[in-house]
Write a structure and sequence with these properties.
The protein is α/β, with parallel strands linked by helices and about 160 residues long. Helix content is about 30%, strand content about 10%. It is built from six helices and five strands, in the order αββαβααβαβα. The chain is globular, with a radius of gyration of 16 Å. About 20% of the residues are buried.
Length: about 160
């Protein structure tokens, strides 16, 4: 059964992962509920201003995790930097992934908060590998979820 809207995907999901080539938000952050983990991979850079998630997602997240500040700044990832500059997002709520891994900071997921991982750097092969894990898991389970091919492609489908 094909999914007709982003609302069908977001509402009731434990993890909301947007991995697209979109330059505009792929879902409405008002649909998020406490307890959800949000992950995105599209980022602005010096040549293309992208906003895969909306400002509401950033402002509603209790904690935002990024890979590193250097790439946020050097790539001019305005979707986060502008919100920090205006005070809509508190810089103190943004943590580097490495600091979490070494235990320097802690982020706790609860039923009341939203954690947002803004994967702001990386290689396409890491996303393909993660997608393969998810695909193989879904393939081996009975599920009624169908991921439309156009969500995964750079080309437009007819």
């Amino acid at each position: 059964m094909p999914v007709e809207s982003s609302e069908e995907v977001v509402v009731g999901a434990d993890i909301v992962c947007s991995m697209t080539n979109s330059t505009t938000p792929t879902f409405d952050g008002n649909l998020l509920k406490g307890g959800q983990l949000v992950i995105s991979v599209a980022n602005s850079d010096v040549t293309l201003k992208r906003h895969e998630v909306d400002e509401t997602t950033f402002t509603r997240a209790s904690d935002i995790i990024i890979n590193d500040w250097d790439s946020v700044v050097s790539n001019q990832q305005t979707e986060l930097l502008d919100l920090i500059d205006t005070g809509a997002v508190d810089r103190e709520r943004v943590f580097e992934l490495g600091d979490l891994c070494i235990g320097e900071v802690a982020v706790k997921q609860t039923n009341d908060n939203i954690v947002y991982y803004k994967n702001n750097t990386g290689l396409g092969m890491q996303f393909a590998a993660a997608g393969a894990v998810v695909y193989n898991k879904m393939k081996n389970e009975e599920t009624n979820r169908v991921v439309p091919p156009e969500w995964l492609a750079a080309e437009d489908y007819p």
